[in-house]
Fold this protein.
Amino acid sequence: MESNEYIIHSSYLNRDMHVLRYGSAGVPFLGFPTQCAPCTNYEDFGVIRTLKPCLEDGRMQLFCVQTVDCESWYCEDGINTWRSARQESYHRFVVDELVPFIRIRSSSEVRPVVMGIDMGATQASIAFFRRPELFSGVIALSGIYDSSYYYHGWMDSTLYDNSVECFLANMPEDHPWIKKYNSASILMCCGRGPWEDECLRTLSNLDKILHRKRIRAIINYWGDDVSHDWPWWRHQLEYYVPIVIKSLPLLTD
């Protein structure tokens, strides 16, 4: 399987960001890692091996990016306004710098699918629901969608923009983005087992919001034995990624 490493200098973050690409053809996927993890996260924990059939036969290519979570979500000794601003800078890096890079490098007319696990699911959902015109779909596993959770209830306007549960709840039901959401593939999942309590709580809240806004999405809750851990995430990706690839409309510019 072909793999490449890239370094992208982000003007928003004022630093170099590392990106790994696996595969060379097919639907481009943008993968966010778990909390504070490097771009090798999916390879380190066996996801690349799990997705190898899709990567080798040209159904998908996967771009994995590093995060700045330790400077935002998990920088608990930092100033909250700086932390939320840092997350906003990361979001701008993703949508304004990384996505155009992926569109050029992937040589695909299909818009990327954004996906993530744990904190990566939070990032993937933020990217998709804030900028649905950029993506064909989203796969979010075991995320937390109420961003104030990481700030112990604190919220400002910048963090609000990065809290999917908040801004979707207040979105008008005739907002033009809803049509864009409904033309994409939305799949969100968590387990009911150990360490999934907050994920289950916020996904259940988001499920109700999506239903109320008439946003079509596949929301799955796996069993009481399904924990917040890699063996289950690998199993979920092995199951869901081929389904999403098959279901994608050809969303091109």
User: Anything to note?
Assistant: The chain has one domain: 3-247. The longest strand covers residues 3-10.
